[in-house]
Design a protein that fits this description.
Layout lengths: L7 E2 L7 E2 L30 E2 L10 H10 L43 E4 L6 E8 L2 E8 L5 E6 L8 E8 L2 E9 L5 E3 L6 E7 L4 E8 L15 E7 L16 E6 L16 E5 L3 E3 L4 E9 L7 E5 L7 E5 L7 E9 L7 E3 L2 E7 L5 E2 L1 E7 L6 E2 L6 E7 L1 H11 L4 E9 L4 E10 L2 E2 L4 E3 L10 E9 L3 E9 L8 E2 L10 E7 L6 E6 L1 H7 L4 E2 L10 E3 L8 H7 L4 H13 L2 E6 L12 E2 L19 H28 L1
Parallel strand pairs: 19-23, 24-35
Antiparallel strand pairs: 1-2, 3-11, 4-5, 5-6, 6-12, 7-8, 7-13, 8-9, 9-10, 11-12, 13-14, 15-22, 16-21, 17-20, 18-19, 18-22, 24-34, 25-33, 26-32, 27-31, 27-34, 28-29, 28-30, 28-32, 35-38, 36-37, 38-39
Length: 640
């Protein structure tokens, strides 16, 4: 808007100016926030205008042209809960422009370090950033109607936390909603989203708002380090009295980790790189395919560090070019094709940036958790079942004492399971004390897996041990779920990125299978074992069945499943402790007991946020407004 005969134009972060007596497009710099990942950058919406209510106080006729020349704004200032604070059109308030939140023509002037495209048509861009205990959002959507954003436990409308905003008839609005388990949309009596800026033109709507990470409103979802299933929608019409109209197909979901800021390295545009890319790989029309392709690493005359793809910390890089480094690399791609679609071709791969400016430390990676095998068993019909993979004290102690007694420093973790996975935690123990979780994802999504950057590096010392704890749901399955490569099989793994590199690649465990079979009544197997899976000899009900068939024949109930889970978590484990060249540490194959946890870690309670900051902005504005009104009245009286 902007008053009779004009719209606001101005550069990024510059005061707006009005072109009088003619329509004008605001200059768009195109300098939007860089994408958090993948270098995404959104198309610039053409000509957004600042939203301002119509009908503000009119200037006297003798001053109207001066107001136009001075660029007097007709603006909206945010109040707590999306309420309107006082607004006014007049040159007397020009001095206030730089003091008010949401005043810049291109937005509030705040930065949003993360940015991603939510739809496949380039119409809905989301930017976000953490500010202390609050999370701020910027929505840029190709619509002149309402825009909606939500957080859902399942990626559907059920039990979701939703915010809807827009600009209707020059009036900005932002409303907090929630849905019940049956997807009924209701307005939240506690409005926890705070509007900071709103802009609209004939094609685009831009909304900026914030909320506390933890509102302690039962209708809101707390935002943590776990995966967040973001749901989105928009409509070509604004919200009316009856609430938002149905969005039809203008909706979707995308999993994100909102509190996982990538510590991106600043790279020169001339930074060298090389690609590891598959060429026209035909994806088979079957459920699961692991495609392995060997690549030769470029020959370097001196040591290089890989520093980007995943962005390593500024003091760490992945070493290449020395006699200890690989000359070839195996790229393994996991294709999941559940509908057995034909004719799919893949040309994806990796681009790795490297440098001769050697960093202080070489990076390494350790696989920790459950060794992938059929000895990892999960009964059917279980709404919750826990598995644990142990990176044992014995393995870590032997490797660290030999290679780095002062310990290694972990800076990122990837947590991995398959389709039955619901949550994963990487627990850390030292001398009987459980320390703060190394990493966790309580809302695991198989289709969204990435390294979590740790907020602060964590040190692993000789004598420590790690447990990768996985939570599964097999409620809808009728047969056993086994450890294995297929997505219908399961895994329970953590991948630790750390420095300095030591000669340890795998620190895992396998639970004892015979004690698992004893739970279902197996007494004896045929020995020596000559077939796989091995065959049961007694009792009669399982005679000549493989152990897999016997486990599936057992009548699993929820009660039996819970008892089995308790047993498995207490079983001795076989230690797997591998070196980088497929050699083994001496502890490999030995039996260890799960650790005694003398003092479990107690998580700090969530602290609920308040809206004091929004109230403060409003109160400050009111005081400034009254002050300047008083001053302008005095000046006006003197000029008469």
């Amino acid at each position: 808007m902007g008053g009779p005969g004009g719209r606001w134009i101005g550069g990024q972060g510059q005061p707006p100016r009005r072109v009088c007596g003619a329509w004008a497009r605001r200059h768009w710099t195109g300098r939007g926030p860089r994408a958090a990942r993948g270098g995404e950058s959104g198309p610039a919406p053409p000509g957004p205008r600042a939203a301002g209510p119509r009908g503000g106080p009119r200037l006297p006729a003798r001053r109207r042209s001066s107001a136009c020349l001075l660029g007097a704004p007709q603006w909206w200032s945010p109040g707590a809960g999306g309420q309107e604070a006082p607004r006014m059109c007049g040159w007397r308030l020009l001095l206030l422009w730089g003091l008010l939140p949401g005043a810049a023509a291109g937005g509030s002037g705040r930065t949003y370090p993360h940015r991603t495209l939510l739809d496949s048509d380039g119409k809905y861009w989301l930017g976000w950033g953490q500010r202390g205990s609050r999370l701020a959002f910027r929505l840029e959507v190709r619509t002149a109607g309402y825009v909606g954003l939500g957080f859902s436990p399942t990626g559907t409308m059920a039990a979701a936390d939703i915010v809807v905003g827009g600009v209707a008839h020059g009036q900005p609005y932002l409303q907090d909603y929630f849905t019940s388990a049956n997807k009924e949309l209701k307005k939240d009596p506690q409005q926890d989203y705070h509007l900071e800026y709103a802009m609209e033109n004939s094609t685009h709507t831009i909304i900026e708002f914030s909320r506390e990470l933890h509102t302690c409103d039962t209708n809101d979802k707390s935002i943590t380090d776990s995966t967040v299933r973001v749901i989105w929608a928009y409509h070509h019409e604004d919200v009316e009295g009856a609430g938002p109209k149905y969005h039809d197909s203008n909706r979707g979901t995308k999993s994100l980790r909102l509190l996982n800021p990538e510590k991106t390295s600043v790279l020169s545009t001339a930074s060298p790189y090389f690609d590891l890319v598959n060429q026209d790989v035909p994806i088979p029309n079957k459920g699961t395919t692991y495609w392995c392709q060997m690549f030769k690493i470029p020959v370097f005359q001196e040591k290089h560090h890989i520093i980007k793809g995943f962005s390593y910390p500024p003091h760490v890089g992945l070493s290449l070019g020395t006699p200890l480094d690989p000359h070839y690399v195996l790229l393994e791609v996991h294709y999941d094709n559940p509908t057995h679609k034909k004719g799919l071709i893949d040309n994806s791969g990796l681009r790795l940036f490297h440098t001769t400016d050697i960093r202080e430390y070489d990076a390494g990676v350790i696989e920790a958790g459950l060794w992938v095998s059929l000895f990892h068993t999960i009964p059917p019909g279980m709404p919750e079942f826990r598995s644990e993979g142990h990176c044992t004290l014995e393995c870590l102690e032997e490797a660290l004492e030999a290679e780095k007694p002062s310990g290694i420093h972990v800076f990122a973790v990837l947590l991995h399971a398959h389709l039955a996975g619901r949550g994963i935690r990487l627990r850390h123990f030292r001398k009987g004390d459980e320390m703060k979780l190394l990493a966790y994802d309580d809302d695991f999504d198989f289709n969204f897996q990435e390294f979590q950057y740790l907020k602060e590096e964590r040190t692993i010392l000789p004598g420590d041990n790690l447990i990768t704890e996985c939570r599964y749901n097999t409620k809808d399955r009728v047969g056993m779920t086994w450890g294995g490569l297929s997505t219908r099989n399961e895994m329970c793994l953590s991948y630790l990125l750390y420095y300095p590199r030591i000669n340890l690649t795998r620190c895992a465990s396998i639970p004892d299978i015979m004690e698992q079979l004893q739970f279902i009544g197996v007494k004896e197997i045929y020995r020596p074992v000559t077939t796989w899976p091995f065959i049961i000899k007694s009792p009669k009900q399982y005679k000549n069945l493989s152990f897999m068939d016997a486990m599936n024949k057992f009548k699993w109930t929820k009660k039996e499943g819970l008892a089995f889970n308790k047993l498995v978590l207490s079983l001795p484990v076989n230690v797997r402790c591998s070196k980088t060249d497929n050699a083994e540490w001496s502890i490999q194959g030995m039996t260890a007991l799960p650790p005694d946890i003398e003092r479990p870690y107690k998580a700090e309670p969530l602290v609920c946020g308040t809206s004091s900051s929004s109230s403060l902005n409003k109160n400050v504005f009111l005081k400034l407004f009254l002050c300047f009104m008083s001053l302008s009245s005095t000046l006006g009286a003197k000029s008469l």
